[in-house]
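Minutes, project huddle
Topic: does the predicted pose make sense with UAG bound?
PN asked that the exact inputs be recorded in the minutes so nobody has to dig through chat later. Recorded below.
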Amino acid sequence: MTSPQGRMRPTHPTAHGIADLIRTFGLRTAGPDASRADQEVAAPRTPAPSGTAVTGVTVASSAVEPGDLFVALHGLTAHGARFARDAVAAGAVAVLTDDDGARLCADVTPPLGVPVLVADDPRALVGDVAAWVYDHPTRELLTVGITGTNGKTTTTYLVDAALAAAHPVRAVLGTVELRIGDDAIESPRTTVEAPALHALLALARERGATAATMEASSHALALGRLHGLTFDVVGFTNLQRDHLDFHGDMDGYFADKARLFAPAQAKRGVVVVDDAWGRRLVAEAPIPVESVSTHLDGPAAGTADWAVVEADVGLDGVGSTFTLRGPDGAHHRAVSPLPGLVNVSNAALAIVLAHRAGIAMGAAIERIGAAPAIPGRMERVIERGGGRPLALVDYAHTPDALVLALESVRPITPGRLILVFGSDGDRDQGKRPIMGEIAAHLADVVVVTDENPRSEVPEQIRAAILAGVRSVRPDGGDVHEATSRAAAIRTALTLADPEDTIIITGKGHEPTQEIAGVFHRYNDRDVLRAAVAEATLAGPGSAE
Ligand SMILES: CC(=O)N[C@H]1[C@@H](OP(=O)(O)OP(=O)(O)OC[C@H]2O[C@@H](n3ccc(=O)[nH]c3=O)[C@H](O)[C@@H]2O)O[C@H](CO)[C@@H](O)[C@@H]1O[C@H](C)C(=O)N[C@@H](C)C(=O)N[C@H](CCC(=O)O)C(=O)O
Ligand SMILES: Nc1ncnc2c1ncn2[C@@H]1O[C@H](COP(=O)(O)OP(=O)(O)OP(=O)(O)O)[C@@H](O)[C@H]1O
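Predicted holo structure (tokens), as shared on screen:
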């Protein structure tokens, strides 16, 4: 993977006259340059003079490229109009903002020298504007969107694997990466800003992609980052307590997730109804939705359109096999390539999503059963054999996810379960002892280390986790502390017998470790592979 900068846009953008933009979106003009933009409105058929055509869009001054429309949004901490001067210096040819922003732009001396366009709510408009500027890429792409608290990334990759049956070139956009075909860049967040999203999709179209699968975060839905695109199919995994600082309460969180199931945003939906939020979504969604029950004894098992009616979790030592009943009563035998019941749920949802996106049931089931590893999601990095233990990397970084991750690997562990984990600095401190307790209850050997300490003292984070561990195991048996993550992984390898399983949780795919404000290149998988190679070279029993 390489750096995102400069690689996320179409290479042959269309030039759109500013007058056209004003007319299409009913914008007002403001400031000393209003007359120039208004003249263009009066003569809309005249090609825009050089320098006044818009070829791109951005909401961040640092990302402006020559020819961009800079959309200056009223943010949570600042008004983007404060950065209009930087944007124009970088090549922005016009600014789109609200009335407050227009006033800020008018105060800039010397004057900005570009048209300032005004809308009542530019955040609501920016997705549609970006889609227009990039010539509506999603009109030529099949699009699948997935939301929910947990399982978005996993389900996204499983759907992508199924879409491969009919779409040789595809885009996958989410927490792990922004991928078009075989070309991937690191992702700055789960769902990128609307201008970046439409630019990426335009690039995907340019490169021959015919389908895109993406994660839809609740922040993105609340902030309109997915405006300007109507998904062919959207999916909902589950809703659990998270991000309440942003959404207020669970009802607010639900309402933001439910925005994905509005007619402007999606044509049809598939909803997992194992929790009450999913059942509420099915009852309230204004678009056609189908329900999927994935818990054998779940409250909607008998009434859902689709239901997992039987599952053998981890019996083959890898993933699970299960039977999915369809709306017509037909039973489909399927495979989850990842361990644990949660991945039966993700695989069942992915099968129905892919099927509704046009993939034949048999092909969807076959492709998902054979899906490649998902970066940092229950990823089997070292296979058991040749005297080596099985070793996996997973992104579980909350108490609930840690429980599920440990319970998922227990059935595929003939020996001891060895856990390497830590907890983030500058984030929820309350979860540290709780995760320590979970580790002590569910793992046999615990190695506590650092995750992303950020501005905190790493020893103090470890001490809080260890307090939880020792509340369950006062004698400290099989409990280890390692002052670096790499050392923790080597310790686990040294301790492991061939029938043991090592699981390293918390960082998953992450390519860096943040310590005291510095992002160091670091990845659990790479360190694990290197440690195994070292141990192999040094001979048996010498992993330390
Ligand atoms: C809470 C949240 O989502 N905040 C987003 C919001 O920030 P904000 O309103 O505070 O922006 P601001 O700092 O006040 O700045 C206002 C405007 O000025 C612009 N600006 C600002 C500074 C500058 O030098 N130049 C400039 O142009 C900004 O781009 C922004 O448009 O609008 C900004 C862009 O408009 C986003 O970058 C920012 O996301 C921040 C980076 C963020 O961390 N978001 C996270 C919480 C997020 O979105 N996470 C979800 C996943 C959550 C999960 O499921 O785990 C995600 O999709 O990744
Ligand atoms: N359907 C599910 N229900 C509950 N937990 C799940 C589910 N799927 C995965 N998990 C757990 O949640 C963690 C994150 O999984 P995944 O990355 O697929 O979800 P996500 O929604 O993309 O989360 P994030 O936004 O944090 O990346 C994993 O550690 C996994 O153990």
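Observations noted during the meeting:
- The chain has three domains: 16-132, 137-369, 379-538.
- The domain at 137-369 is CATH 3.40.1190.10 (UDP-N-acetylmuramoyl-L-alanine:D-glutamate ligase).
No decisions taken; revisit at the next huddle.
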